[in-house]
């Protein structure tokens, strides 16, 4: 337990099959979205050009502005807010966050770790680093898959700048950080993997539903500010080619606040099962 970040390496090694499967799966899925986007044009999917779709449909393309799902940026954005994409992120964050603290407390193995010369802060830091690295890997895999497709296909190249693809990928990483913070805080305070997974799903899946309702129903519009999907807008990034730094700051800020809270909680809690 001395040099070489053993806890980080062990966390990655134990879940190497899951990590590889998620990375390959998310890259293949985004490649499929690219193929579908160019094989079936937006006009063929949504009818004649110029048709105005309800504002709520912007939630599916990851847009708070003027990017319609009936466009190339909108269709690619839909691949980056699709339930499959969300599920990949939730699986990685929930699994690794639960394993950070709560899983060992639940299984009664945390005391074996603490017997060795390793501090609570180091335990959490290395396992947090493993989670951040996996989130970065998944979003990089998705981003590269879309980037290659845009580079190879003229129709997409004309409508979507490469800078937009990478801006959307950075927002995706910010979204993963937004999930990571609360999940780690619950793991640091809790004794059950189930509770960590529940919070992760609530932030991700319920957050998407809240954003959709807020965009569809004007009376619920203020609720959009509590959903991470109000700030995670890949459709806008793909269309405009720039990173909305304010929105990225909110996503990363929530993640950082949750991680700091997790360190405070794990330093003070009773680790006995």
From TrEMBL:
Upper classification of the organism: Bacteria, Bacillati, Actinomycetota, Actinomycetes, Kitasatosporales
Native source organism of the sequence: Streptomyces telluris
Keyword Cytoplasm applies: no
Gene Ontology CC, one term: plasma membrane
GO molecular function, one term: ABC-type transporter activity
Protein name: ABC transporter permease subunit
Pfam families noted in UniProt: ABC2_membrane_2
PANTHER family linked to this entry: INTEGRAL MEMBRANE PROTEIN-RELATED, MEMBRANE PROTEIN
Listed transmembrane segments: 20-40, 84-107, 128-153, 165-189, 196-217, 248-267
Keywords: Membrane, Transmembrane, Transmembrane helix
């Amino acid at each position: 337990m001395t040099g070489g970040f053993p806890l980080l390496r062990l966390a990655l090694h134990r879940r190497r099959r899951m990590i590889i499967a998620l990375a390959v799966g998310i890259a293949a899925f985004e490649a499929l979205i690219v193929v579908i986007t160019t094989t079936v044009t937006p006009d063929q999917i949504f009818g004649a050009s110029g048709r105005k779709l309800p504002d709520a449909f912007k939630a599916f393309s990851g847009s708070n502005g003027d990017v319609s799902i009936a466009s190339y940026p909108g269709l690619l954005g839909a691949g980056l807010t699709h339930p499959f994409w969300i599920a990949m992120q939730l699986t990685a964050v929930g699994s690794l966050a639960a394993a950070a603290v709560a899983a060992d407390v639940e299984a009664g193995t945390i005391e074996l770790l603490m017997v060795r010369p390793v501090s609570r802060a180091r335990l959490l830091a290395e396992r947090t680093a493993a989670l951040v690295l996996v989130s970065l890997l998944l979003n990089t895999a998705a981003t590269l898959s879309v980037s290659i497709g845009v580079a190879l296909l003229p129709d997409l190249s004309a409508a979507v700048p490469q800078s937009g693809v990478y801006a959307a990928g950075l927002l995706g990483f910010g979204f993963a950080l937004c999930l990571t913070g609360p999940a780690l805080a619950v793991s640091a305070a809790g004794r059950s993997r189930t509770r960590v997974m529940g919070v992760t799903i609530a932030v991700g899946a319920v957050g998407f539903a809240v954003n959709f309702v807020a965009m569809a129903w004007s009376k619920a519009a203020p609720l959009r500010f509590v959903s991470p999907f109000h700030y995670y807008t890949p459709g806008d990034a793909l269309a405009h080619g720039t990173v909305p730094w304010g929105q990225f700051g909110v996503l990363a800020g929530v993640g950082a606040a949750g991680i700091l809270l997790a360190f405070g909680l794990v330093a003070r809690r009773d680790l006995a099962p």
